[in-house]
Amino acid sequence: xxxxxxxxxxxxxxxxxxxxxxxxxxxxIIAFPTETVYGLGANIFCDEAIKKIxxxxxxxxxxxxxxxxxKQEDVEKIASLIPAKARKLMEVFWPGPLxxxxxxxxxxxxxxxxxxDTIGIRMPDHxxxxxxxxxxxxxxxxxxxxxSGSPSPTSFKxxxxxxxxxxxxxxxxxxxxxxxxxxIIDLTEEIPLILRPGTITKEEIEEVIGKVAFDQALFTKEVxxxxxxxxxxKHYAPKAKVYIIKEKEDIENILTEVxxxxxxxxxxxxxCFRENYGAxxxxxxxxxxxxxxxxxxxxxxxxxxxxxxxxxxxxxxxIFIEETEEKGLGFSYMNRLKKxxxxxxxxxx
Length: 349
Ligand code: TXA
Ligand code: MG
Hints:
The chain is of the alpha/beta class.
């Protein structure tokens, strides 16, 4: 299949917009930009289109999809019960990077929800995608537009790398502002439960609806019991072996690890915060990459997947990457980093 590209920074031409909407309605799958990562969209009411998503991404069939809406009242079309706390969250955080899990209506395909009686819903904050959802009166289910297991795409180029030739089209909406997937909160529980941390933090949510908890699966490597089925799969992983290192303090340990003959001959990248760069000047790496300011974790989050993908393209075999404190946004950053690195902390002597 020859994938069509729709390349516009801010606006799609009227005829392109109509073509995209018609294609979704006819059961085609098209990747679209959001503020978090790119999504691979299918009409929620078309099972044939949903099957194409699982096939193109090589996604396990037990991993449900998030529904993307363009107007708040569309929630009523697919959710059977909308608690007051859910409405408050929608008012404050939508459009934005927050997915709300609610009881679903019967008419929602169980292919989309992988057989669950709930559905995750969010209203993405991106003008191009909003125009498609609103003008087409569409609800699109969409996972991230990457091959299962690889880092989520934060640009048009990333989607092309993974899915070119496998899907009907890709819409270019520039680089994603947030850079990691939305925060997922389950509102079907007595105490709302955060299933996946994102750039909307637990603290920000609690300011709006009071106490919420983290799914315990977020604190263990053993994620078989995760309430968000997707959290149990290997995720976001680059091809390189990843070593998670302490800021600056690990230089001796890096030298010890690199002195192992096998590593010495291999390509190595260092990924660190701007403030710490100077500490590594004497070390010999194939690449030294600054991920962002330590004082601004949002920047590091925005860059993380892009840098992991760049390392793949550069043929990097080993990545040494600095950790940060698991608080606030740092918790979300470390959630993705630990998965990308299979929890592989550099051994300390
Ligand atoms: O930011 C995002 O959320 C992006 C953009 C495209 O919107 N989407 C995204 O989708 O990250 P995906 O499919 O890569 O991840 C969806 C996650 C999976 O871990 C899945 O198991 C979980 O959401 N999920 C979906 N529906 C669920 C439900 N009803 N209950 C619990 N977890 C659910
Ligand atoms: Mg994904």
